[in-house]
Design a protein that fits this description.
By secondary structure, this protein is mainly β. The protein is globular.
Length: 239
C-alpha cells in the first residue's frame, strides 16, 4: 500500500508535536521532584529541522526537508532514546525512519574517550532497509576516529563500513567549523565504495543551533542524484 507524501508529512508533524509536548510535560514533572542522585538519569528531548537529510554524503530525504524529533534518558556517560525522521528513497518513495539507540562512553583520560553506540534501524511502511548500526567513536583531544558498521547498507542486504575522521574548529564570533570525512567500504553488487565529506559552519544563538553544511561524494553518479554535491541548512534545539 502506497502512502502519500502529504499523509507522511502530516504524520511526522503530529508525531513531532506529541513528542515535544510529552518531553516538556515529563521535564516539568521531573523538575518538581528532588533529585535523589546527581548521577541519575535525566529526560532529554531534541528536535532538528533540516532542508536535506544527509548521512555519509547521501541524501536520505531525496534532497528535500526532514523533521527529526528525539526523546530519551541520559546519564553522565550513557544515553538511551529514540530518534525519528521522514525519509524518501528512489526505490520505495516516502517512509518513516525510527532508530531506538543506546550509547556508552568509556573515559580513559580528560581528553581521551571511546563512545560505543548501537542503533536499531527501522523503516515504515517499507522494511527493506531495516538493519543494525554499530558505531565506535574514539576521541583523541577532540579529534575523532570513527568506525561504523551498517548491516543493511542502503537497502542492499549487505554490510558496509564507514571509516571516518571528524573534528570541529572554533572560529571568530562564536562560529564553529565542522568536518567529517570518510570512506564507505562495501561489497554491494550495484554500488561501489566511495569517499564522502560533510562539512560546514555552526552557530548557537539562544536555544537554537544553526548549521550551514555541504557535502561531496566521490562516486555520486551511482545514487540517482541522491549524492550530488549539496548545500543545506539545519536548525536544532535541545530541552
Amino acid at each position: 500500500m502506497k502512502i502519500s507524501g502529504c499523509f507522511l508529512n502530516f504524520t511526522a508533524t503530529i508525531f513531532l508535536c506529541l513528542s515535544l509536548f510529552a518531553a516538556k510535560s515529563l521535564q516539568a514533572q521531573e523538575a518538581s521532584k528532588e533529585s535523589s542522585s546527581a548521577s541519575g538519569p535525566k529526560i532529554f528531548g531534541e528536535f532538528t529541522f533540516t532542508t536535506n537529510y544527509m548521512e555519509q554524503a547521501i541524501s536520505n530525504s531525496n534532497n528535500s526537508y526532514a523533521v527529526q524529533p528525539a526523546l530519551g534518558y541520559q546519564w553522565p556517560t550513557a544515553q538511551i532514546g529514540i530518534r525519528s525522521s521522514n525519509v524518501q528513497f528512489p526505490d520505495n518513495g516516502e517512509s518513516l525512519n525510527l532508530r531506538p539507540y543506546a550509547w556508552y562512553q568509556f573515559i580513559f583520560a580528560a581528553s581521551v574517550d571511546l563512545k560505543v553506540r548501537y542503533d536499531l534501524n527501522m523503516y515504515f511502511a517499507s522494511n527493506s532497509r531495516n538493519g543494525d548500526i554499530f558505531r565506535a567513536d574514539l576521541n583523541l583531544f577532540t579529534h575523532h576516529l570513527i568506525v561504523e558498521n551498517n548491516s543493511n547498507w542502503y537497502g542492499t542486504g549487505t554490510a558496509a563500513y564507514w571509516l571516518a575522521y571528524g573534528h570541529s574548529w572554533p572560529t571568530p564570533w562564536g562560529i564553529e567549523y565542522k568536518l567529517e570525512a570518510g570512506y564507505l567500504m562495501g561489497n554491494a553488487t550495484n554500488y561501489s565504495s566511495y569517499f564522502g565529506i560533510q562539512n560546514g559552519f555552526g552557530y548557537k544563538y539562544g536555544d537554537f543551533y544553526y548549521e550551514l553544511l555541504g557535502s561531496f561524494n566521490s562516486n555520486a553518479d551511482q545514487f540517482s542524484h541522491m549524492a550530488d554535491p549539496a548545500i543545506w541548512l539545519e536548525i536544532s534545539t535541545k530541552f
